[in-house]
Amino acid sequence: MSVCGCLSWSRLNDAVVPVIESFSLPSPIPQWPPGHGFGSGTINLGELEVREINKFEFIWGSDIKNRRKGVNFFKPVDIPVGFFCLGHYCQPDRTPLHGFVLVARELTRPEPPALLKPIDYSLIWCPDNWTEENVHGHGYFWLPTAPDGYKALGFIVTNKPAKPSLDDIRCVREDLTEVCEPQRIILSTHSKASNSPFNVWKIRPRNRGVHEKGVSVGTFFCSCIWSPGEDINMSCLKNLNPSLNLMPNLNQAHALVKYYGPRMYFHPDEVYLPSSVSWFFENGALLYKKGELEGQQIDPTGSNLPKGGCNDGEYWIDLPKDHSTEKKIKKGNLESAKVYVHVKPALGGAFTDIQVWVFCPFNGPGCLKIGLMNYQLSRVGQHVGDWEHVTLRISNFTGELWSVYLSQHSAGVWVDPAELEFVEGNKTIVYASRNGHANYPHPGDVLQGSGSLRIGIRNTVAFSDYYFDSSQSYEIVATEYLGDGVVNEPCWLQYMRKWGPTTVHDSRAEMTRTLNRLPESIRYTAKIVFDKLPNELYGEDGPTGPKEKSSWFGDEKC
Predict the structure, then answer these.
(1) Does position 234 have pLDDT exceeding 70, yes or no?
(2) Nearest CA-CA partner of 390 in 549, 210, 277, 556
(3) How crowded is residue 525: how many other Cβ atoms within 10 Å of its Cβ?
């Protein structure tokens, strides 16, 4: 299990300077099987070659006095000869240092050049209420002024008022860049002198997905005047190399799954366990067509399922009508369970996303939590067929696990490896919630609704003997970037309709009856919270399969 480090403090020229622990995975990165450019340390983007830098020098911290509530700013160090900085890095100081920025060099001598020095800097912000007692100097935030036809990809942070050298950073020719957007705010403070806010955001390419070219540089955006909805004056890189030889070949993809594949734990009281898709079909799952009363037995490979098209409501899968067989299928079959792996490029091909899909024949009813009281629901939340997934984002520079996405019903969250538990080296541990199978990084209770009001659907996860190792029980089902014929996609993957029927029971009536039993003082508030919960919790629709999800060719929802 990984453990987050703490900050300690030293003094440099009578100023407080944090000694920051860097995060590393529990085990060293192995030597990957040979082939292509995966894990080679550099990526060819066409006119530019880029390298990932994750060694930094601390420049300034926004709130060193309170230590674990601020943001630290760094400049990259040990930049190889011929490469140039594109911007500085920052992260909250409550976790060990774990990040990157890209540095770049020109592969040819194009005209006009791919990289140019800025012509000046604009001072964006500096704090007016800090002293040497709680900061290492002052923080000064500089935006490079790019020459015409060029874009700045990052900011420079200094702890002295003098402008940085024009040699400290490079701007990139505009046609080699893509538009960025703010991802999440990591610092919000206020200037007493100017009476204006100052905010810092992590940024990412605006357009993300398998076919998009935007490459994240790892820098940040900051402003005193920007408002959500406006474009930001910041760009990322564009991958103009069509070969994608930086992506793992099939042998390397297998090695990544076997090395990083998560161990998945289900609740000790879980009734509705996962199974393989073939077990689900072999044990009586039926295909129904609109207008027909009888369902058709599905072939174990799914070869008789309709292929292609879209979720048009013409077909759906359901359980058999025989009660004993239905009960058996609902419980799943952990012995047959495996994950179905989709390997795809992410962020312009600088990363590989390994989507690990888990199938459960049945999703059980939810548990309503109001304050200290729990109400086990009888039907709300249940539906036939449940697909959840975990995505491992791997750096194509090194093969290092960089981030993990945990799906949670209709949404999910990216989790930094420093916040995860590990087993057997660098295999992450994932906990699936009881009945609903949403994924979480640690045992405990998570409230889906309003945490501050303590009202919502309770997601309970715990360690148990019900688990399987996805690094051993897996099947790679799709690698589109490797071309046709490298991986034969299973027949059932082409089925784009529902894996469960549209329910006809009135689940909202059950919720209404529950609300009416509540004290009048909280009934109205509880109703507002419930109305915001996703429809799938009310069992109104069966889910579609993996390939019909927006994240199959796009990015994860977060």
Answers:
(1) yes
(2) 556
(3) 14
Question: What is the number of helices (H) and of strands (E) in the chain?
Answer: 5, 38
CB 256 within 8 A of CB 352: yes
CA-atom Rg of the chain in angstroms: 26
Give Cα separations from 374 to 459, 461, 514 (angstroms).
11, 15, 11
Q: Exposed (0-12), middle (13-18) or buried (19+): which is 242, by Cβ within 10 Å?
A: exposed
**SS3 label, residue 407:** strand
- Which residues pair with residue 488 across a beta bridge? none
Q: Is 39 helix (H, G, I), strand (E, B) or coil?
A: coil
Tokens of 119: 């012509």
pLDDT at 11 over 50: no
- What is the distance of C-alpha 161 from the center of its chain? 38
pLDDT the model gives residue 134: 43
The structure's pTM equals: 0.90
End-to-end CA separation in angstroms for the chain: 25
Count CB-CB contacts under 10 A for residue 515: 16
Query: For strand 15-19 and strand 8-12, is the pairing parallel, antiparallel, or unpaired?
Result: antiparallel
**Cis bond before residue 112 (omega within 30° of 0):** yes
3-state secondary structure of 328: helix
Are the CB atoms for 394 and 351 separated by under 8 Å?
Answer: yes
The CA angle 122-222-163, to the nearest 5 degrees, is: 30
Give the C-alpha separation, 327 to 316, whole Å: 19
Report DSSP letters for 479-499, one per residue. Answer: -GGG-TTSS---GGGGB-SBS
**Cβ–Cβ contacts within 10 Å for residue 196, how many?**
12
Distance CA 427, CA 429 (A): 7
Residues facing residue 12 across a β-bridge: 15
Question: At which residue do the structure tokens 């992506």 appear?
Answer: 247
48: three-class secondary structure by DSSP: strand
Which tens digit of pLDDT belongs to each residue from 236-283? 999 999 888 899 999 999 999 999 999 999 999 999 999 999 999 999
Longest distance between any two alpha carbons in the chain, whole Å: 82
φ, ψ of residue 428 to 5 degrees: the values are -75, 155
Contact 154, 172 (CB under 8 A): no
Rounded Cα distance between 223 and 448, Å, is 33
Are the beta carbons of 435 and 448 closer than 8 angstroms?
A: no
> E strands, 86-212, where?
89-92, 101-106, 115-116, 120-125, 140-145, 150-151, 156-158, 171-173, 177-191, 196-205
The DSSP bridge partners found for residue 61 are: 72
Q: Do residues 130 and 194 lie in contact, with contact meaning Cβ atoms separated by under 8 Å?
A: no
Indicate the domain borders of the chain: 8-30+41-238, 250-548
DSSP state of 6: -
Q: What's the whole-number average pLDDT of the chain?
A: 87
